[in-house]
Amino acid sequence: MVRLITHNLLACHAKGCTTNNFPLQIKDAQLALREAEFNPDFLRGFIPRIEWAALVSAARQLGDESLPNEVPEMIDDDFLRGLHHVLLEIHIDEGAMVCPNCGHVYPISSGIPNMLLAEHEIG
Amino acid sequence: MSPPRVAVALVEGDPSTYETRYVHDVYEQIASHFSATRYKPWPIISHFLSELPTGWVGLDSGTGNGKYLPLPAERPGAVWTVGLDRSLSLLETAKMAGGVTREVVWGDVLGKGWRRGAFDYAVSIATIHHLATPERRRLAVRRLLESVSSTHGRVLIYVWATEQDALSKRSIPSSRTDICVTEGQDVFVPWVLSPSMPPQPRKSRRQEGHQSKPAVGPDTSPVPARQKFSRYYHMFSEGELRRLVEYVANDLCLPIGRKEDHPVGTSGVEIVQSGWERSNYYIELRRWGL
Ligand SMILES: [Zn+2]
């Protein structure tokens, strides 16, 4: 599955591509919304690990404008529920992720991203 | 039924092509049967995952059918493990491991398709022993150390040992005079598909350059209705895994030891524990530093 929690971790690793290789741009996404169990303790611990600007822009690419530009100082239940939805309930079932630097395309099929490189693309 | 015979393997030609034939293609073929049989987490792995702080995110590099993705069992959802594997067939199982939607990625354990240091922890269970040269095994360890945080990242690695426990179903050839390895032993381990478990259809989403035929082992005999595959393993000798880690740490300019014993402002890696458990060697590492 590709949810934004995973997208926030992925970076391009094609040969020679070491700068501006994150975040990957989401293209032609077919989305599905699936409920996931809400775990506020996990989210509180996870927030400092998020590349926030990348998450906000990825969510907007998928048509979700709910996240604030900055992580709020007061983390309340409403914010956590919104974050939960964006990180864990929006699935990219089909589509692709494109490197902003070198243009390498990482396809997504049946919810599984293909991060394999051909032999000559491995750095 | 007699225990499966393990045969000595000789790695020849391009190691990546060799692994495609004797590892990846085999797992694609046996995935459904394999998934039906592998389900018990080993105690040291369960313990490692149960000690992780809530909110951590990790990588299971070579996740197979994803059996570690639901852990820790006593705190479901407390940490988030992303599963990576070369076998798409296994990932189809892994993505619903434990009956919950998981995050899985189709990729190579020698790749680095992550933000550097993106993870808090990484596990590599029964995976690195499928890589066919010392250089590739070192690179796999390097990728694990690079994938986790340089300040607190934890890594657990598990590989097959030449020292097999008495209860093991595997019988290991004792002669190693005709093989040319400095450490450990390269072997083929048979996998027999019974008629009730037909091989899965091949996936069409193949990378270019990996079009070799599914592996049939060197000792395959034409048995009707029973298909036999040979998987390649490098079995680790005592101390080999630790030396591998030491080599990689040195390459990354990371001193090995405890943070307390080194000057403030430096970074390094601590070997928290290493040993042998149930026919496997394991090592647990913690990065520390700025
Ligand atoms: Zn790139």
Helix count of chain B equals 5
Radius of gyration of chain B: 19 Å
Number of strands of chain A: 4
> What is the CATH third-level topology name of chain A?
N-terminal domain of TfIIb
Class by alpha and beta content of chain A: alpha+beta
Number of domains of chain A: 1
Which architecture of chain A would the CATH scheme give at its second level? Single Sheet
Rg estimate of chain A, integer Å: 15 Å
What share of residues of chain A is helical?
25-40%
The global form of chain A is globular
Specify the number of helices of chain A.
4
Helix content estimate of chain B? 10-25%
- Point out poorly predicted stretches of chain B: 175-181, 200-224
Strand order of the largest sheet of chain B: 4-3-2-5-6-10-9
Task: Please describe what this structure looks like.
The complex is a heterodimer of chains A (123) and B (290). With 123 residues, chain A is an alpha+beta fold. Chain A has one domain: N-terminal domain of TfIIb, CATH 2.20.25.10. Chain A is built from four helices and four strands. Chain A has helices at 4-7, 40-46, 52-61, 77-88; strands at 25-33, 90-98, 105-109, 112-113. In chain A, strands 1-2-3-4 form a four-stranded antiparallel β-sheet, with helices on one face. Chain A is globular. The mean pLDDT of chain A is 96. Chain B is built from five helices and ten strands. Chain B is globular. The model of chain B is unreliable at 175-181 and 200-224 (pLDDT under 50). Chain B has a seven-stranded mixed β-sheet, with helices on both faces. Chain B has a three-stranded antiparallel β-sheet with strand order 1-7-8. With 290 residues, chain B is an alpha/beta fold. In chain B, β3 (80-85), α3 (88-94) and β4 form a beta-alpha-beta unit. Chain A binds chain B through residues 1-3, 5-6, 9-13, 22, 34, 36-37, 39, 41-47, 49, 51, 91, 106, 109-119, 122, and chain B through 16, 53-57, 77-80, 82, 84, 86, 88, 91-92, 95, 100-108, 110-116, 118-120, 205, 207-209. The structure holds zinc ion. Residues 12, 14, 17, 21, 99, 101-102, 104 of chain A line the site of zinc ion.
